[in-house]
Amino acid sequence: MDTLSLKFETLFGDATDLQRYFCPGRVNLIGEHIDYLGGSVLPMAISMGITALVKATNEPIIRLHSTDFDETIEFDIDHLPESKQENWTDFVVGVLNHLKSKGVILSGVNILFDSDLPKSSGLSSSAALEVLSYFMFTELWTGSACNRIQMAIDCQRIENNFIGVNCGIMDQFAVANGKLGHALLLDCNSLENELIPLDLTAYQLLIINSNKPRQLAHIAYNQRRAECDEALRILQHSNPSLPDLVSGDIASLYLIEDETIRKRARHAITEHERVKKSVQALKKNDLIELGRLLNASHASLKDDFQVSCDELDFIVAELQALEFCIGARMTGAGFGGCCIALVEADSAETVSKKLITSYENRFGFAPSVYPCNTSDGVHAITT
Ligand code: GLA
Question: Domain with 22 in it: what CATH number?
């Protein structure tokens, strides 16, 4: 028996005929802070994620254990909390309430969740727990497979309405629909999407977790959204047919008098362009151009959208100064969390060591560096 099954047996007694599911986290290659503006984004599902072991029971109870929190919490299926309890089970309960409201008949289960995704680091552990729960419960209780696009839409709504985080759709969509060996180009307006083969040849994509907790990020996030709404309102005044901010014209930005609002709009428009150019670069296997676009994205997030922080800027500057690195930027919502970097594969280890030392000298704590490998979106593990 493997370690997780043993753990399950210790916790719940019977570990025969367990079903297993996995949901990856995600990293965003490029297209930051434009999913909620209807822009295009290019995330990928990653090999770090959450595994669930599940077994049906005859009791009307949903028993959830998290190895991360070393905690078991149970719910009576007829008395699920109607609002969040401010703990990790909220993401599961949000999904349970949603499925129940859609007429799905809930029944008893014991579940063990085990994650190797660092929490609160911008790798979408929340989206992974929502999508994993949604996928697993739908398969267990309805016997039918999920529509993965609808699942992403529903999970985003659960995050918005039950959890109370006003996020866009990128994270839930990426962990639901990602594919091994690919990045996922997503038009967040139409939800049209295309898998883009990610052939990095002699390069390695690294994820660098600053290990800086993201403080007050949600307040700044909502503020950025409001500033972008304001920019769109101003631009639509002279161009009523302008559908969304990302399709605005850089030349018309002079119409926005307020410098802060103008900068936010400039980021939205230029970042959307960079996504399109990045896809072209990937299709032509022009990784040097992709690296240049990653660098430009960071500059825009730092100076125009102002969602970076000292730790992320330090990591990016250190990496960009190395000849083995062809591009680096912060990724995710910002104010802490992670960066990504495209480095020569042979020097990935040297780069990591150098960076860990200089970062620790500067900030007094170390970052974590992981090679970024792609993965399939949420799935049952059949072996
Ligand atoms: C968070 C949100 C996403 C997206 C990114 C920034 O991850 O959940 O919807 O807005 O920030 O690109």
Answer: 3.30.230.10
